[in-house]
Design goal:
Elements: H1 5-14, E1 40-42, E2 45-47, E3 49-53, E4 59-63, H2 89-106, H3 116-125, H4 134-138, H5 140-157, E5 161-170, E6 176-183, E7 189-196, H6 204-222, E8 225-231, H7 235-244, E9 253-256, H8 258-269, H9 272-287, H10 289-299, H11 316-337, H12 344-351, H13 353-376, H14 383-398, H15 405-422, H16 425-432, H17 444-457, H18 462-472, H19 484-487, H20 492-503, H21 508-518, H22 525-537, H23 547-559
Parallel strand pairs: 5-8, 8-9
Antiparallel strand pairs: 1-2, 3-4, 5-6, 6-7
Helix pairs in contact: 2-5, 2-23, 5-23, 6-7, 8-13, 8-15, 9-10, 9-11, 9-13, 10-11, 11-12, 11-13, 13-14, 14-15, 14-16, 16-17, 20-21, 22-23
Length: about 550
């Protein structure tokens, strides 16, 4: 390495695999030799030389002809693709859709996508990716994701028998909106249509025409069957249901929502003077700064807070009464220890034992109704299950030994009125045909009403024969299929479908009737929850949304948060 050519030759021979290519235009990094390629013209001869460093850092030329021949080898060029994040147009479309779904599922403002911190987050997660703009989120991406989710909805509802519900509300601009929902047998609610009815009054006649058109459109669009129809119990809705029964172009059973009627029963049994006292006390301890501070200090972690009733939420009055009774000892201690600071009227009401006893009596009335309402407002609750819940509620109210006979008489009278309003012959027929429940729980009159309903609404009266055999458990309705461990684990519709396959004792027409009854839902609470979603999406902070766009966002919010 000190300028001796012999050693350099030997070194190149030994390390030939690291030698440069035939053009000698690259250098072996491990040898620390500087090579150059030059051409010296001496007449007609061309000479290539190799420059080697000498002791005095002077370069000496050595003819390349004296260098040993080394095998030609192509240098490997490092693949930089592993160090670069590439985002193709197809990949960007997929990422954009997922970003959009996040915004729709969380009801996040579209302008957040253009926030610098969000852009920085995207840049860190995937360098080179640029998120969509707020115009993209509210435009083409919204339509794309909506069509994708609607296609999934179409696949789910295809060839199914569904229960339809309809109701109206006013949005943030006070525009009248009609929402139409369908519920599957499993209790999944889908918002399938939203109609702006500005300029059209919600009369029974107009609602009937709207409902008939909606039923036909939904059946054609989703290739499904609408066979039951449930609404709340407003006068215009009741008029619409009555008119729908006379329409030959549709085959639906119509009835009122049992959850709404149970809520009305709770209001029937409320004692206004008692509830007013509780609301005043709870509101004072929630709004007065000193009283609230003392209550928070005293209640600890085990006690529940004081709640107030809400006009738009069921069972809130019962919850308010229950919270008062549970916290009454704490309230007594606060008003006793802080006589001067606490309002005198509130202190007297808290210390009045007569008010407390009246609250306890009222809670005994409302608590069984509250439990029944929680069960019946489930989207999966069928009309057969609704009958069973009403029957159990009747038994629970009669078992109440604390109330005197006079109060029981009032309760029984109110219950009977609401019971007759909620349960119709179609409810009793579904109950009789359900393998889960016992026919003897119904009265003779209720059974006769169910049979009469078959005569009036179905041409094929052979269903009566099936019903009678089913009630007495005659052949073929006997055997292991009726054991409790079987009927309690299998849905009623699936049970009948299996029976028709195993024993071939039911015609296709009869099975369609049973399918209609077993898929009918007891409540329209699903559409009420849709209104809550609409209020969340189309709020005062997002009041520039149109009805169509708000409907798409409400649908996606429900669909992406199942």
């Amino acid at each position: 390495m000190e300028g001796q050519v012999g050693r350099m030759k030997k070194h190149l021979e030994t390390c030939g695999s690291f030698a440069s290519d035939s053009d000698h235009d690259s250098v072996d990094a491990q040898v620390e030799v500087t090579t150059t390629s030059s051409t010296t013209m001496t007449g007609e001869d061309t000479e290539s030389s190799l420059c080697l460093p000498g002791p005095s850092n002077l370069k000496r030329k050595l003819p390349c002809s004296t260098l040993p021949l080394v095998p030609e080898k192509k240098l490997k060029i490092s693949d930089l693709s592993s160090f670069v994040v590439k985002t193709s147009s197809s990949q960007k479309e997929v990422i954009d859709c997922h970003v959009a779904k996040y915004f729709y599922a969380t009801n996040t403002s579209f302008r957040s996508v253009e926030n610098n911190h969000f852009k920085k987050l995207m840049e860190i997660l995937r360098p080179g990716y640029f998120p969509p703009s707020k115009l993209d989120l509210s435009g083409n991406l919204l339509n794309k994701v909506y069509e994708s989710e609607m296609e999934k909805c179409h696949d789910t509802l295809k060839n199914q028998t569904l229960c339809m519900s309809l109701d109206g509300w006013s949005n943030v601009h006070n525009q009248p909106i009609i929402c139409i929902c369908v519920t599957t047998m499993e209790g999944i609610v889908y918002l399938v249509d939203t109609i702006d009815t500005s300029g059209t009054p919600h009369t029974g006649e107009n609602l009937t025409d709207l409902a008939v058109t909606a039923i036909k459109n939904i059946q054609d669009k989703f290739n499904c069957r609408i066979r039951s129809f449930v609404t709340d119990n407003a006068a215009n809705m009741a008029s619409m249901r009555k008119a729908l029964k006379t329409k030959d172009c549709i085959e639906v059973v119509c009835y009122g929502c049992s959850a709404h009627i149970l809520s009305l029963l709770s209001k029937d049994l409320e004692i206004q003077s008692v509830t007013e006292h509780v609301v005043q006390i709870n509101k004072y301890f929630r709004n007065n700064q000193f009283a609230r501070a003392k209550f928070n200090e005293s209640k600890g972690n085990k006690s529940v807070g004081l709640s107030l009733p809400s006009q738009v939420r069921w069972n809130t009055m019962c919850d308010s009464l229950e919270s008062y009774i549970k916290n009454w000892p704490i309230l007594m201690q606060i008003v006793d220890e802080n006589r001067v600071a606490i309002d005198e009227s509130i202190r007297s009401k808290v210390m009045n034992l007569s008010i407390k006893r009246n609250v306890e009596d009222l809670l005994l009335r409302l608590k069984p109704i509250s439990i029944a309402l929680d069960q019946i407002q489930k989207d999966s609750c069928s009309i057969a299950e609704a009958v069973d819940i009403w029957k159990k509620l009747e038994t629970d109210l009669k078992k109440n030994k604390v109330l005197d006979n006079c109060k029981k008489s009032v309760i029984n009278k109110s219950f009977k009125n609401r019971y007759d309003q909620a349960l119709t012959p179609v409810h009793f027929l579904a109950y009789l045909l359900s393998p889960t429940f016992r026919p003897e729980n119904l009265s003779t009159e209720e059974k006769n009403n169910a049979i009469q309903f078959i005569k009036e609404n179905y041409e094929d009266t052979s269903l009566i024969t099936i019903l009678l055999k089913f009630i007495v458990r005659a052949e073929p309705f006997n055997g292991p299929l009726f054991e409790d461990k079987v009927v309690n684990k299998v849905d009623a519709l699936h049970w009948w479908q299996s029976l028709s396959t195993l024993k071939d004792c039911i015609s296709s027409k009869e099975l369609l009737v049973i399918e209609q009854l077993m898929t009918a839902k007891a409540t329209s609470a699903g559409v009420e929850r849709i209104f809550s979603t609409f209020g969340f999406v189309h709020s005062k902070l997002r009041n520039q949304l149109g009805v169509e766009k708000a409907a798409k966002l409400a649908f996606l919010f429900k669909s992406l948060n199942k």
